[in-house]
Amino acid sequence: MSRSVVVLIYLDRSWQEITAKRRAKGADPTAADLYDAIMEGAIERVRPKMTTVVAIMAGLLPIMWSSGTGSEVMSHLAAPMVGGMVSSTVLTLCVIPALYALVKQWQLRLELARPTVLPFIR
User: Widest CA span of the chain, in angstroms?
Assistant: First the structure.
C-alpha cells in the first residue's frame, strides 16, 4: 500500500506544479493540464516500480517452476506472491492514476462551476 501512496504523492506534486504555472499566467487549470500532470507524475514512477517487480519476479519464478525437494510447498508460496506483484503493478501504474484523474476532474469541475461572489460590504 505504501507504493500507492508514493504514486499519489508524485501525482499530486505534479498537479500542484502545473496548477501553479497556470495560475501564474492568470489562467485556470484545465482537464488537459490534469492529464499532463498525471502522465508526468506516473511516468516518474514506472522505472522504480518495474525494476522492483522484475527483480522480485526473477527470484520467484524459478521457485515456482522448480521440481525438487520441497518444491511442492515453495511453489504454493511463490504463486500468490507473483500474483500479488502483478496486481500491485496494475494498481500502481493504471488504477490509481485513473482514479486520481476522476477525483481531480470532479474537483476541477466543481471549482470552475462555483460562481465568484464578491463580499457584501455595508
Answer: 87
Show the beta-strand stretches assigned E in the chain: none
Using one digit for the tens of pLDDT, what is the confidence trace for 61-76?
888 888 878 777 888 8
100 burial via Cβ count (<10 Å: 0-12, 13-18, 19+): buried
| DSSP at 70 | T
pLDDT at residue 120 greater than cutoff 70: no
Dihedral, 9, 46, 106, 110 alpha carbons, nearest 10: 50
For 74-87, b/e burial (b = at least 16 CB within 10 A) is eeeebeeebeebee
> Cell triple for residue 69?
525437494
Q: Within 13 Å of residue 76, how many CA atoms lie on the same side as its CB? A: 3
